[in-house]
Amino acid sequence: MSANLASVYVFSAADGTLLSTWRSIQDQAVIPGIGKPIEERSEDQDPSNRPSKRQKKASPDNASDSSSAEIVTEDGPLRTRKSKKTKITESNVVNLVATSDGQSIAVVTDEDKSMLKRPCAITFTPDEKTIVCGDKYGDVYALPLHPAENDTGHVSQSGAEADEEHEAHATGSFPSASTRTVHTLRNRQALKHQLDSANKKPPPKTLAFNHHLLLGHVSLLTDVKCIAVAGEESANPPDRTYIITADRDEHIRVSRGIPQAHIIEGFCLGHKHFVSKLCVPSWNKRLLISGGGDDHLLVWDWTAGHLLHRVNLQSLVLNHINYRYASSELLDPDPIEQKTILASYNRIAVCGLYPAEVRNAVGELRRYIAVAVEGIPAVFLFSIADNGAMRQEAAIATEGNVIGITVSKNRDHIAYAIDTEHKQFSQFQLVEVDRPTPSATIGILSYSAMTGHWQHNVDLQQAIRLATRNLSSRASHVDQALGGKMRNRDSASLLYGLENLRKRGQDG
Fold it and tell me: N or C: which end of the chain has fewer CB within 10 A?
């Protein structure tokens, strides 16, 4: 699965064919069909839209303001309202997670209004029947994956929500007049009405589905994991569930699972900067790898809260930058900017952390951790032992900055998303029009049992490349019908936002 702006695409991991598509446009009148392209025609071409004799015909300068788009689909034409009055809601997908059987998927958009506050992290419980969602105020909620038909929701308000509403009313616009300055009966009645309106407390927000507040942090929550481990009290003990959460304040917290999530089991304290990603390998669920704004990756025994290993990541990033410039592998090499880039990466931010497990030619298991760093065109691979010791195996160069990373169900493919708009090693500079750009938005790495190395899967990558080219062409038609609303947002803030978590005054 992959997300591109407001769409989610599902590809086959075997041959790269497109299986299904989902869009987050809320105005159903402007959702294009899968098949035919979009056509545009002005209202002046439609006789039914001609103005009557008493109406003043629009001038040529204002003709563009009164035009509307007609979207032709397999079911026939769909005409939107006038662009001046149409409010189109299109939210970019910022996070998605799927169940292990691939039957359900949970999607978070950048303007998600379904929760009380904007979700920042999302996962499933081990039984994959409940969604665990953390928001920007540090609260973690439990939501049913498949709500019941008679589920009408209930009122729920977190402490952060109540504080925000109280502050909004405390700083609201109260009238400056008082009973000492207003004397007439009519003006006093108007003043009383203004005071009553300013002091009126709005009703708490109600969600349209069942949800439960599990736990809360005192700062922005960045990642959440739900883990089930075997107990040790008896010969065949039931699994115990835990919720591991990370936040902006360098904390990793271990809480009990539902329904005892309010009980804190312990903390993993060792980060000096924000924690952005957590990783629990499936083959050893007592290990935890964490990364964020620090120079190192940290390996924990989270059940005891012990730090096992530190892996220097920043030095590997700097070595990779020097290597790429020395070997002239960049699409747009510029030696003059090399020193500036090296200085800008005196601090890093981990944006991807996933485990992979494969077998070599003789059937031995090989376990790896794939790491992506914000603004770096590479995937860093580490081998990991049973005791948590990590060793760098490779830094595989990519055509563009890696903005997302995941591992296939069988854990033998590593898929990564590529930023095609910004220059390599840059989070702000756009690629010039006359410069080469990455040829694909998705890359695939596969493990070769014969060589024992990870390498680019050219065939699978080419198949996905052809599918994404068609989707890009179709998205451009949709963008034209929407008046360019899909491309007007700042792509840098959407793709690169982890450095905003770093507190002021903190060095790399």
Answer: C
